[in-house]
Structures are given as C-alpha cells and as structure tokens.
Amino acid sequence: MSVSNLLENWSKFRHTHPVGDKGHPDWEAYPSEIKWAMSIDLDACTGCNACSVACYAENNLPVVGKEKYSHGQAMHWMRIERYWDEDKREVPNQGAQFLPMLCQQCEAAPCETVCPVGATNHTEDGLNSQIYNRCIGSRYCSANCPYKVRYFNWYDYPTTENVWPAPMEQQLNPDLTVRGKGVMEKCTFCKQRTYTARNNAKTEGRKIHDGDVQTACQQACPTNAISFGNLFDPESRVAKQWEQQQVELIKEEQEKDVKPGNNLRGYRIFEELRPYPSVMYLERVRESDV
Amino acid sequence: MGKDIREDIAWAHINQDVLKSLENPRPLFWVIVFVALMMFGVGVGCEVYQYQMGMGVAGLNNPNVWGLYIATFIFWIGMSHSGTLLSAILHLMHADWRKPIYRFAEAMTTFSLMTAGLFVMVHLGRLWQFYYAVPYPNERWTWPNFQSPLLWDAMAIFTYLSSSVIFLYVGSIPDFAICRDNIHPGWRKNLYTLLALGWEGTDRQWRNFRVTYLTVACFLIPLAVSVHSIVASDFAMSQQPGWHVTSFPPYFVAGALYSGCAAIITLFIILRYVFKFEEYMTMPILKKTVRLTFAIAMVWTYLNLIEFASVWYSHDEVAKAVLIDKATGRFAPFWWAMNFCGSVVPFTMMVKRWQTSIPIMFAVSLLLNLGMWLERWMIVTPTFSHGYYPWTMDTHYWPSLVQWGIVFGSFGWFTLLFMVFCKIVPSVSMYEVKEMVYHRSLATKKAELGLEGGH
Amino acid sequence: MSKRHMLALYNNFDEAEAVVRELRNSEIKGFNAADDLVVKSPIEHPEVEEFLGHKPVNVQWFTLIGALSGGLLAFFLIAGSQANFYSQMKGGKPIVPFPPDFVLTYEMFILGGVYITVLGFLICAGLPARRSPLYSAKVSTDQIGLLVRVDDNSAATLRSIFTKHQALEIQEEAGK
User: Fold this and answer.
1) Do residues B132 and B144 touch, judged by C-beta distance below 8 A?
2) Are C90 and B145 a contacting pair at CB < 8 A?
3) How far, in Å, CA of C82 to CA of C88, rounded?
4) Residue of B143, B159, B194 best to disrupt the C interface, most CBs of C under 10 A
5) Which fold is adopted by the domain C3-56+135-172?
6) What residue segments make up the domains of chain C, in order of their start?
7) Cys staple from A277: which of A104, A213, B238, C159, with CB 3.0 to 4.6 Å?
8) Mind listing the pLDDT tens digit for each residue in B169-227?
9) If pLDDT is split at 50, 70 and 90, which confidence band does A3 have?
C-alpha cells in the first residue's frame, strides 16, 4: 500500500467497465481470456422445469416447502416463469410462454455497487460473484437487481426440518457449501464446475475448449435450449450464437434493433438499463407470426 | 398575540421552576415511562425471536426484501431533523422564541437518531456481523464498499449523531453548572459536577462558548441536509422505478423537517403538562411552531406533487406504472391516507383559534406524523411489488406481526429514552431563557424611554 | 508579596460594568485589570466583552484544522483502501470512483470540524477545571461576579471600590 502505487496505476483505477475498456484481454486488471456467457432458446424451451430441478441438486438449494414457497421465500436460482397471452380467453390458444430466469451475470451489475460490505464483485472470468462469508444481509443488492434473481436465506435452512429429509442430505454436493441464515445467494453459472474445468485445462497446459464445462441446467435440458461457454472463444457454440444473432456484449442497444426489418431472434432483457447482461434469449417463434 | 414569555420572571424563579422538573413531575410521567417500557419490551421480544429464527419471520420475501424496517428507519431519521432546525438554523437567525423549546427538540434529534440506528441493525440478516460495514483496519485486509449508499448512510448517521450529542452537551454545560450548584447532595450532584466540567460562567468561558456554539451550529445545518439527502440516495441512486427520482433528496429533507416539527408539537404538549412548564412553553410559542410546521407542510406538499408530476410527464412507463399502482393497487388506501394526512390535515393549522388549542394540535400533530410514516412506507414497499420485472407483480407481501411489533416497540424505546432524559437533564434551557427574558425586558425598557428600539 | 482572591457580587450588568471601568482606569499596585480580573455571569452577555476590553478567541483555528484534516483523512483513507487493499471491480465503475468518495469526504470534513472545534473549546476555555477558590452559587442564579487577584496591600482599595458600587456581597480569601 502506498500513494506511489495509487498514482502509478491511476489510469487503471479510473477505468470503467465494460464501456471504457479497450476490450478483453487488453485491460490490465482483468487479463482474462474467459468470459462465461449463456444463450437460451425460448423456442426450444418446453417449460419442463428440469433445469430448475438440476440446479436444486447441483447447488444445494434448500427445498423450503409449500408454506414458505407460498410466502415467496423459495430459493430457485433458476426459475421458470410463465406468461399468458392476454386475450381474455379462458384457455389461451397459444398456452403459456416460458422464460427460464437466472442471474444474468451482468458485466456492470447494479447489485455490486450498492453492497455495503463489498460481498458481491465482478470476477475476472466475467461473473458476478457472491461472497457468503462477507454478506451481512442488508439485501440492498436484491433491492437494486432489475431481474430480482437474488435469493435471501430467510431461515437457517440447513437446520430446518424437511429441507433435505434423510437420506437426501446424502446427495448434497460436496463441491460447494450450504448457506446459513441471513445471507444472499444466487446463480453462479455453476462456479464449482467452471473452476474445475479451468484447473483441468491448466494442468493439461491447454486452453478451455467448448464442451469442457456444462452448467447443471444446460446438462439437464431435454431440448438443448441452453448453451453455455466462453464468449471470447470464437469456436464456442455460445459465441457463434451471439455472433449469428448480432448481439454484442458491450452495447445497450444493438445495431440490428434500430435497423428495420430484422428477423433475428436474439435479445437481452433490460439491455437499456446498461447492466450488460451475459445471458442472451432467443425469442419464441409464434405461430401467428409464421 | 401575547408575549412569548413573561418578561418579569425573576432569574432565580427560572432556576427553581426548571429544577423542579428534575424532581417531581406529574404522575403522568411515570405512567408514560411504564407504558413506554412495556412497548419496548414487545419490540425486544420480537427482535429476539427474529434473531433466533431468521428474517423470514418478518414476513419478507424474495422480491420484497425491504419492508417496514427501512420505512421506519427513514421515519426516525427524518424526525431528527427538526431539532437541528430549531437549535441551529433559528439560532443563526436570532429567533429567540426557540430558546425555551430547543433543548428538548435537540434531545429528540439525538434519540430518534439512536432509534433509527437500531432499525439498521434490526434489518440486517446477519446482525452479528454488522461490524463488517465499519471501516477499520483489520487483519483480514478488507474494507467496506465505499460506493454503497448504505455506507454513506452509516457514515452520515454516525457524524450526525455524534455531532448532535456534542452540540446538545456543549449547550447544556451552563445548565449542568446550575444543577450542580442547586441540587441536594447525592449521585445526581456528583453527576452534574462531572458534566459541568467546572463551569463557572467566567468571561473567558462564555467568550469561547459563544464561538464554539455558533461554529457547531454552522456545521450542523449542512450536515442535517446531507444526512437526509444521503438517505434519499439509498433510493435515488438505485435503478428501481419509483425510487430513481432526481427530486428525492430535497423531498426527503422537506419530509424530515415536516415530521420533526409535528413531533415537536406533540412533545411540546406532553412536556408542558407533565413538567408544568406552562410559563415557558407558552401558547404564543406553540403558535409560532404551528405556523412554521404549516409552512414546511406546504413545502412538502409541493415537492410531493412535483415528484408525481415529474414521473407522470417523464415518459418512463415503468415508473408511471408504479405510481398508478400506488394510487389504485393494494396499497391505495395507505397512499391516499398519506396524501390526506400530509397535505389536507395541515390546513387545520390555518385556523387561528385552533393554533393554540392543545387537544386539536395534539391530534393534528399525531396525524401529520402518521402521514409521514405512511409516506416512507409508500416509498419503500410498492416499488418491490411493482418493479421492472413482471414476475414481482405476482407476489403478495404483507408485514408480519413481528415486523409490526418491532416498529411498535421502537416508539416505546424512543419515548423511554426521551422521558428519562427530561428527568435528568433540564429540558428547558435555563441560561438561555434568562437571556431571552433579559434581552426582551431591555428592549421594552428602551422602547419606554423613547430611545431607538433594539432588535 | 502574597496575592489573594476577592469576589464581589452585583445585582446587574450595569453596576458590574461601572466597577470594571473604574478598575481598568485606576492604577492599583499589584493589580492589572487585563490579567487579574474575571467577570462571571449567569448568561452570555456580549457587552461584557466590550467593557472588559478585547480578548482573542482562537477556537476557529481548531475548526479549520479539524475540518481540513478530517476531509483529507477521509479521502486518502477511502481512495487508498479502494486502490490498495480492495482493488476489486464493482458494477463497472472505476475502482476509485469520485462521487461516493466526495460524499464521504464531506461527512468526515464536518466530523473533523465538529470534534476538533469542541476540543478547541475545552482547551481555550480551560475546561475541565477545578472551580476557582472563591465561588458563589449565586453567579449561576442571577448575580454578576467579579473575581480579582490582588496584592494583600491593595485589598483595601479594591474593597472600597466594590462597596462604592453597592456590592451585594464581598468574599475574600485569607491572605497566604
């Protein structure tokens, strides 16, 4: 710690991300070659909830039970939302539309700046991290999250009965912790898996390939609606999809959207709020449009 | 309008009257203390239960993560602002009618800030780790996040609380000396001797006292404004519809002064009766306070309407939806009650006869504060259930009894602290009432002699 | 030559003022009005300063130093901790962002100002202190006290001046 250190690296300390950056991996503070990103094809999604179940199993999410669920205290990091056409018919002819919602791992996350203790930060592989040990439970991050994808431990679930009734505690994932009461948690893009994959690649002295790592939700999806990978790797499926849909990470308004007559399906939710989310959705093709 | 205070009260009589308040208040005092203690007990019970079980028992849920705790926190912070208005702003403006009532207003500042501080704690999910938010060098080499408005809050409240305690204390030193000289020997005499720091009223002490008091008053004014602006920043700096409003800081400051002035009227009436202060807390002073409150009520009404108007004309569809939801949704009764109590009820203060009617003003001041409490609740809660993301609109949230219990208990805690304070520290500033009487009688004499009147 | 303290009590500021003026104008051996005269009053009375002659107040220097050092400490503590210990990106903002740091600098400016002003008050006013050898509780009620320190030889002269102006009470410390 020194003033000279501060002055020397002044320009680095005054850099904004991602808009002020020269682009990956040029920026000195984050010389990462990895930017985890996702794309979800809503046309393929059947709303089967397999992703959500897989997430519960992989990430030791507490099953809070009917009563707490009805109080809105569920812990589903990956939630399937249902939206109905408002055509006033008792049975909408197109049925529900589904939207799997998870933490969007924003590049400029609104939740990060407001945490009083700095428990949530931007990581070098482009995620929005949550440090459970550091969290004091002010819940400001959730208040400022436009997507409301942060979940608070309203009770001490590990000691609550029937959260993991025997022998279900045997299936808890040893690669990550169970969270006690009073801390915030949220989707990590299966951090335990991405870290293992990166370590393996490092051991083998190679770069991460597409397919080295799958998130639990991606793995469980029967229709292959979810793709996940390194956005900086041009060969990855996710990068190809983003490219094909002309969705760029560092834009709050995509060029294709201002052009008339574009038929591309890719979009990001609340792009205009400038959080630069890392999840791209592919719009559902409606029968009426076809 | 009659005189603010009788000009021929003997100085020795002032000492006697105020010192009596430390000895034998009316029996109602003990009733109030007892009731406050019971209320505080309820709050403590609820907090113990919540601490054991987790925040879930407060009835909060996943989009609705903030509730009454934050709303009541703002309420108490707001109430603290009028002490500074009376003691610092009116001091600089030489409005000497503040002198008999500023001491208790300052005490109100201190204790409502302490109550607000409690709500920060009560709100935390992991209360036992609250020190993570305190910036101190530690072996973990971690610091709080200085970008967070919550941290600015903590810093601002700490500064404000410690400054107003200091201000209250420095302003009371001459009175502690009076107590020391007059009270019968015992633990109280020892306490006052200690607190008076050997004050004798020498010219050197008074000279430095005057400059210090003025300087601290000058610091307190921008500080008070900054504190509530920062509380407003908790919301205005966020991205949520209904919160992200540029006019929030002045709106919050106006609301703060408003609820504080209303609380001063309430406490004025209670203290006047309980401690038999009829000679000092006179009707003309009540009238002036009521008029001041009315003026601030109109400022608040204006800023409140400005907030609605700026949302309405902003083309921000989401923020507009929140506003419409406030006026027509589940919280509509409370929202309309807030507007009624905040903007319509104060017009009763325009009736001259009612300005000095104790029962009417007591009821009105309570209604105004109810309105201001509702205002804070209506700022915090509807945004959660009608935010950007449509998923939140499906959730239903109502505070549980635990939450209501803690809010209820906080009123007991405040009343308890305040009443105990008034029993130990003279709640009317004796030396300043003497100054007031002295200068006013001088001015009267000069006028009688046909000389140029003083100010 | 040994010195002793005398305390005279007066009913109002006018009488006390007359005494002070006479004391300042007269030449009494072993008594210097600027150093040996203290006026005690139950209220703060600006005219006391006028008839007592100008005496400096230095509290404002403490205020200046306190406020500046509070502000500087805040900014360097915060910017330093952000840049050195905690070089961690949040929300795409710079690691040392100015607007929040200025908010905190402002608060600490006031905090430093208030604390050091009060410290300055205690130093300048000589508090906390033991009470002076002659003290009357009447000063805190309604009387004006004049405390003088004078040579034993001149005590009689002072006493006569005090009496001339209708002192209510004269207390005297036994000569040492």
Assistant:
1) yes
2) yes
3) 8
4) B159
5) Alpha-Beta Plaits (3.30.70)
6) 3-56+135-172, 59-124
7) A104
8) 999 999 999 898 888 888 888 999 899 898 888 888 888 998 999 999 999 999 999 99
9) low
